[in-house]
Every structure is written in structure tokens, then in C-alpha cells.
Amino acid sequence: xxxxxxxxxxxEKALNKVLKRFRTVSSQHRLQQxxxxxxxxxxxxxxxxxxxxxxxxxxxxxxxxxEIHTREGDPNKILARCPVCESSLKxxxxxxxxxGQVTIEFTCPICGYWTGKKKRIPTxxxxxxxxxx
Length: 133
Ligand SMILES: [Zn+2]
Fold this sequence. Notes:
The chain has one domain. By secondary structure, the protein is α+β, with helices and mostly antiparallel strands. It is elongated and about 65 Å long. The strands form 3 sheets. It has a 3-stranded antiparallel β-sheet with strand order 2-8-4. The termini are far apart. A hairpin with a 6-residue loop joins strand 5 (90-95) and strand 6. The protein contains 3 helices and 8 strands, in the order βαβαβαβββββ. The chain binds zinc ion (ZN). The site of zinc ion (ZN) has 8 residues, from loops.
């Protein structure tokens, strides 16, 4: 079995078609299946696009509102990069109104991921076509 590795541009085009047709795709794996189908490999060929690469392309395409579902992770784990898109996380301090306590949050300016002390580990992604696209 040989692999066909499409360019980022081709993947983005296929992604665009898939999102316009379905509006919402409820998992990364499903999105991968739909995009692969759209990219139509030749007979005997497999389309090679990993879920992670596809997610990165989707985030950078500006076509997607990404809904990130998470579970609680280890509070002692240090996150240097965004677990969703690998951008640098921004450290944000929030003052709570009542106690004047400071909470530290990390946010990603690219994909909208955020986490507090209890780390949020992404478990599922839902891809919505961005409004106005
Ligand atoms: Zn991110």
C-alpha cells in the first residue's frame, strides 16, 4: 500500500468542502475520515494525513470554531506549549472579586484553549464552521 501525502493547501480545500457540507463535525477522527474521502486517493493508495496535522491545518485555516472538550489533568504538570496547536501559551493573572486572590491561567491566543491550575487535558474536539464563512 502506498501513501499519498497531500499538501497543506489541498487538505485545506478538502476541509473547506467538508465543513461547508456538514457545518459541524463532532470528532477529530470523523473529520479525518471525511477529509480523506474528499481527497480521493487513487486506487491502491492511502491518503496520509494524521489527525494532529489535520487539526493544525484546521486551526490555521481560519475556517473553524474549535470546541475543545477536556478532562482534569495533573496540577503539577507544567505546560509550556498549547496541547491543542503547539503555540506558546500566554500567562494571565486574574484577580478574583471577593478575596482579592490571584489565580493564574494560561490561554492560547491562536486556538482559544485555556487552563487553570488544574490542567485541562483535551479529550475531544468538535469542529464548527466559523460564522460568516
Ligand atoms: Zn492553541
